[in-house]
Design brief:
By secondary structure, the chain is of the alpha/beta class. The chain is built from 5 helices and 9 strands. The model has no long low-confidence stretch (mean pLDDT about 95). It binds inosinic acid (IMP) and magnesium ion (MG).
Length: about 190
């Protein structure tokens, strides 16, 4: 049984279009990213920072693919309004619990879209004077970017389409699929 066997998810599979990335493809890429981070950060005891909730499966797999000591921490954010969200301004609902001053921080994202939210969060973290601050994302919709962001570790480039699975949701659903797939267009209408 592979992670991509859609018959395991009879209540969700009718909503799904094409599979873009299989569970095996994702796992292999995550392992490569973990190996790269292990080599680059040897001796530096990095802090992996993730934004809840979408990053959860990726961070869980990535940290286990990294072979050097590390710490993890989380932030949670909410939008004030759709208008502020469009400008990338968010409220930090849960802040980091570790002090990152002088630390080597890897900001881990599930997907970077416009980059506006990420840019806002990176600016907030930089004021705390980490030794280094790099970005690691599994998925990158680089064609959709509205603001330039340096991405050090990138898993896969995504087409400008809405996808679900492996942490990515539509209205909080589909995060638990182990693969990433397109959502059928009619689902957007009445979910
Ligand atoms: P942005 O980079 O500030 O535009 O925001 C990126 C956020 O939008 C991500 O953290 C996701 O929560 C969400 N997002 C963007 N594209 C997708 C997608 O294809 N599926 C699910 N969520 C997405
Ligand atoms: Mg996210």
């Amino acid at each position: 049984m592979t992670g991509d066997d859609r018959s395991r998810f009879p209540e969700m599979s009718p909503d799904l279009g094409q599979t873009l990335f299989s569970a095996e493809q994702i796992q292999q890429r995550v392992n490569e990213m973990g190996a790269a981070i292990s080599a680059d950060y040897a001796g530096l005891n990095p802090v992996l920072v993730g934004v809840l909730k979408g990053v959860m499966p990726f961070l869980a797999d990535l940290m286990r693919a990294i072979t050097i000591p590390l710490e993890i921490d989380f932030m949670a954010i909410t939008s004030y309004s759709s208008e502020t969200r469009e400008r990338g301004i968010v409220r930090i609902e849960k802040d980091l619990s570790v002090a990152i001053e002088g630390r080597h921080v890897i900001f881990v994202e599930d997907v970077i879209d416009t980059g506006l939210t990420l840019n806002y969060l990176l600016r907030a973290l930089r004021t705390r004077e980490p030794a280094t601050l790099q970005v690691c994302t599994l998925f990158d919709k680089s064609v959709h970017r509205l603001i330039d962001i340096d991405v050090t570790y990138q898993g896969f480039d995504l087409p400008d389409r809405f996808v679900v699975g492996y942490g990515l949701d539509y209205r909080e659903k589909y995060r638990n699929l182990p693969f990433v797939a397109l959502l059928k267009p009619h689902i957007f209408g009445h979910a």
